Amino acid sequence: xxxxxxxxxxxxxxxxxxxxxxxxxxxxxxxxxxxxxxxxxxxxxxxxxxxxxxxxxxxxxxxxxxxxxxxxxxxxxxxxxxxxxxxxxxxxxxxxxxxxxxxxxxxxxxxxxxxxxxxxxxxxxxxxxxxxxxxxxxxxxxxxxxxxxxxxxxxxxxxxxxxxxxxxxxxxxxxxxxxxxxxxxxxxxxx
Length: 191
Description:
The chain has helices at residues 2-10, 14-66, and strands spanning 69-70, 78-81, 86-91, 104-111, 116-122, 126-131, 134-144, 149-159, 176-184. It is of the alpha+beta class. The chain has two domains: 2-36; 43-184, no CATH class.
């Protein structure tokens, strides 16, 4: 009888084997879930960071160019057209502080159908696409006579997939970013 008991203690029952398989499976499913969850959030964060960098680049580009705008009584410092989606301005190329021969217009334009913001280094001839992920972009010119300041306010938003075919903008699969900038034009007088 002693041999039968010791042989039973050394063997594994079918029930114990099933419990071991279930526990290993649960651990494997847990690690897979953690991996999928992490990859999803890393992808979403990466897309969001790329959008933020793209919009920051565009706003810095606009700030650099528009802040150097010049104007006089015959030429407005900035002209906003097409329902606030295009801004044109004169750039002081020869650095004499006034619009003269050699100075020319530059522009930024938002194209809603193609989700692009284009920069014209010599309007309307040469253009460069700054982004193709723009959901909205608008310009507003504000001047304060009392403070003798001129400002251009830029509101811009972008989406990873701006046409919104698959997911709405702002979802974790299609992150969205909105930024706002106020660009001072110190070379333009309000008088």
